[in-house]
Amino acid sequence: MILTVTAGKGGVGKTTVAYNLAAELDAVAVDADLGMADLPPARGPDLHDVLAGRAAPVEAVSDDGPVSVLPCGRSLAGLRGADPAELVDVVRTVAREYGRVVVDAPAGMHSDAGVALLTGDAALLVTRPTRPALAGALRTRELAREVDTPLARVVLNRADRLADHGRLASTLGAPVTALPESERLAAAQRAGQPVASVAPDSTASERFARLARAVETALC
């Protein structure tokens, strides 16, 4: 199973959702945001090295933390040497070895975002209840359709309640899950931990568990 987590614009909590969902699904989180890596780094080779042919995909997966991660490098030199066209094969190789992969895609409409969407069996679209974020989400939904990656779920992040649930689901073409603002989630993210590890009884942890079950159901 390969799930690509995407967003129409930055700052909506895409990486937070990808990391916590990977924890719930016992999946490898792949940081495919080649220019703005945000998942926890690790020692050893990274995705830049893999895409430049300097390391094998499975060799670059770090199992040292609470979530297995294929991190991305943060240097411009590493970015220049990477070939994004290799990403699909890299992710599929990791999926064959580990079974489940959650890809943290670049936000927006850059070509790298399209390649990351191509890797997925399905996509999860993260947005916020603001006009710019929803406009970006609509554009990303169209990009997913262009590359023929089905949309499994929409996450409305930092939303205390889900207004117009049916209308938003109809507009974006997938069921919607609302994630409320959560200081416990924010603190866990700052510590590089999934919220289930540090606050398992929190509302945020429960919502991610529910989201993981919904994704599994959609992809079965």
CATH superfamily: P-loop containing nucleotide triphosphate hydrolases
Which stretches are poorly predicted, pLDDT < 50 over at least 5 residues?
A: none
Mean pLDDT: 90
Structural class: alpha/beta
Proportion of residues in β-strands? 15-25%
Could you say how many structural domains there are in total? Answer: 1
Main beta-sheet annotation: 7 strands, parallel
- Straight-line N-to-C gap: 9 Å
CATH topology: Rossmann fold
Explain what you see.
The longest helix is centred in the C-terminal third of the chain and has 17 residues, at 203-219. The protein is an alpha/beta fold. α1 crosses α10 (203-219). The chain is globular, with a radius of gyration of 16 Å. The chain has a single domain (2-219), classed as P-loop containing nucleotide triphosphate hydrolases (Rossmann fold). α7 (165-172) links the parallel β6 (151-157) and β7. It is 44% helix and 15% strand. The chain has 10 helices and 7 strands. A 7-stranded parallel β-sheet has the order 3-2-4-1-5-6-7, with helices on both faces.
